[in-house]
Amino acid sequence: MIATGYKKVVIVKTGTDAGGTFSATTGDFTTDQRTFTGGAIGATSTEGGAVADDTEVISVSGGDLNDLGAITSATIVRDGTNGCYVVVGGVGGLALLRDTNRDGWAASGLLNTFSFFGTSLSFQKVGSFSNIRKLWMAVTTGGTEALYILTNDTLYRIDATDLNAVSPTAKTLATVTGLGLASHHSFADFVASKTLGLLATSNGLYRTGDTKNISTAANSSDVDWTAVNLPDAQTGVTKLIPLSKSLLPYEFADGAPGQVYYIASSVSLQNASLGRLEITDASTAVGDGTVAVVRHPVLKSAAGVITDAVMTVLGKYRGNFATNGATLLATSPQQLTQAPQLVRLPLKAGAGTPFNYNNEKEIDLNLDVTASTLLGLTRNSATGSWLVYGDFGLRVLE
User: Which alpha helices (H) appear in 15-84, and where do they start and end?
Assistant: First the structure.
């Protein structure tokens, strides 16, 4: 797992695979922690010394990470020739964990120990990006990997084969003005799987156009962004949560159908809606039926016309949503005197069902009075535990 903070990145070994049996890392994480303060790992770092086989936590700060400020997103991208890269992005830009030859670690991938990091890796800032909101990795139709970079007003793609360049080439796939939006609009979220890209903006949701392929597009014209008509909800789409049969989020449209939950919300109206999209296989060019809104009919008029709605209206502003297929969880940041909240939504939440706060269960996060923001929640694949993170740090529900 990778955790990001202010000018800092922490990499945690969650478990070990022994003959096909996975064992989660438990117990004392601090004893086998290595801390590096010069932006590099191993012998070339300020502290020196390679990562040991029993190292379970690597904490890196300093160096080019200082230029990134608040680090908002991280992912891993693999190139079959030059290796694997930890990629982190933040307010101040983008950085790759590379060696002195600008290669990543061995392309064979992750092992049971952190020894694959070697002794000469450092976080190296590349490009002139700023205000990065999200990094996303997806496999292209050619079988290679690509890095997508979302900022407040621009979406880029860097092909994995270019990550060892001094200045990797970033193709601009979308801009606020290019979509015909006013300058005060912004981008909020992005996900991609093979030919399909979904872009959440303050003025609705957009997808790759018919017959187009976002994984090979050279510019926004090649993507041909097309608006997705959503049921009555808030205008701004703020969050995309993809689900795939493989459990790998970036495969939600890769070889099999998947789903994408979305949150449409308004801070000023203090409200949010939760909806669902049905996604077909996007291994080939996108078509008119690749993205379909899951219907939740709620009203039939005298003329026989059925009105569709979102899955559920959340009743207040919600910043994040997650589900394991049974439990529906949502978060909200601090509002006036109300502390940040993690809640389990009513089990019968759905179109046509009145939203009842009495059926909503708040989960105690044991936060102190200084906490103001819940940035998200995810599951630890090693233990099944829910992880909740924000300006208070990290909380584990287990």
Answer: 65-68
DSSP string, 311-375: SEE-SS---EEEESSS-EEEEE--BTTBPPEEEEPPTT-STTS---GGG-EE------TT---EE
What gap in Å lies between CA 398 and CA 394, rounded to an integer? 13
Q: Among candidates 278, 186, 176, which has minimal Cα distance to 236?
A: 186
Residue 32: CB partners within 8 Å, gap ≥ 6? 52, 54, 55, 56, 57
240 — pLDDT class (breaks 50, 70, 90): very high
pTM over 0.85: yes
Question: For strand 145-151 and strand 154-159, is the pairing parallel, antiparallel, or unpaired?
Answer: antiparallel
- Asked whether the beta carbons of 397 and 379 are under 8 A apart, the reply is no
84 DSSP 8-state letter: E
The Cα 358–Cα 363 span in angstroms is 14
Please give the Cα distance from 231 to 234 (Å, whole number): 9
**Residue 385 DSSP symbol:** -
Which residue in this structure is represented by tokens 């070697």?
118
pLDDT of 128 reads 95
How sure is the predictor about 356, in pLDDT bands with cuts at 50, 70 and 90?
low
Distance (Å, rounded) from C-alpha 131 to C-alpha 124?
A: 17
Contact 371, 334 (CB under 8 A): yes
User: Quick one: how far is CA 101 from the chain centroid?
Assistant: 29
Q: Which of 339, 345, 326, 208 is nearest to 274 (CA)?
A: 345
CB 136 within 8 Å of CB 150: yes
Whole-angstrom distance, CA of residue 103 vs CA of residue 98 = 5
**What is the per-residue pLDDT across 108-134, written as a single tens digit (0 to 9) for each?**
767 788 877 766 899 999 999 999 999
263 and 239 Cβ atoms separated by less than 8 Å:
yes
Q: Please, which pLDDT band fits residue 352 given cuts at 50, 70 and 90?
A: low
